[in-house]
Amino acid sequence: MTDLRTPPTHDGGLFPARVQEYAYERPLQRLSILDAGCGWTDEIELGSVECTITGVDDDVPVLCEHTRNRRDLDTWQLGDLRTVPMPPRVYDVVRASHLIERIPHAELVLDRFVAALKPGGLMVARFRDRDTAFGYLDRRLPHWLRQLLWHHEQAPPAVYDRVASLEGMRWYCMMRGLVISEEYTSRDTMTGFGRLMGTAFRTLSLLSRNRLTSAYSEVTLVIRKPENRFARII
Known about the structure:
This protein is an alpha/beta fold. The chain is 30% helix and 22% strand.
């Protein structure tokens, strides 16, 4: 199911828009937001929305430095995302931006985020799709070459578990009884490359008979956890 109320050319405004809608439906309630992947994301700007923002990410020096410099987080914790303390049914909204593709055991970690969501809560997940031409090169190239081509000197290594794809996330949500209310794809990562790499992406797509698409590189999903306590939820 796809909801095109706000079809973005870039999804930077999608997260605050959905949080503001969520807050509007719950007046006088202070929201609790989890920024999963806080060591590699921009600060959250939500205007007049009253909220508490908690950050969580892997305990890696570059991620720790970025997290410490953020001004929007009320609290944060870095560590193994499979074991970092995360109480159940606490958060109204989870933002998971460019995290799914860079962590191992991604399904297990996603399960923990879903368990930490309140019934009726939402998760906005943005990730690079492993089944695109960009995703294929990102997970196949040697790390040093990837760093050189991608121009991110300290970028986290690519992992790309099976769930880090549009089809993988659709399957994950179906199996967990979650609802994907919005789907978007974008070419944001690929737009920064020159003609040579653009040709490489298109050539790879053709050689794979379009199994590896060059039409997009990122996927953004708005995922809702059912409020019905009899639904299949974690």
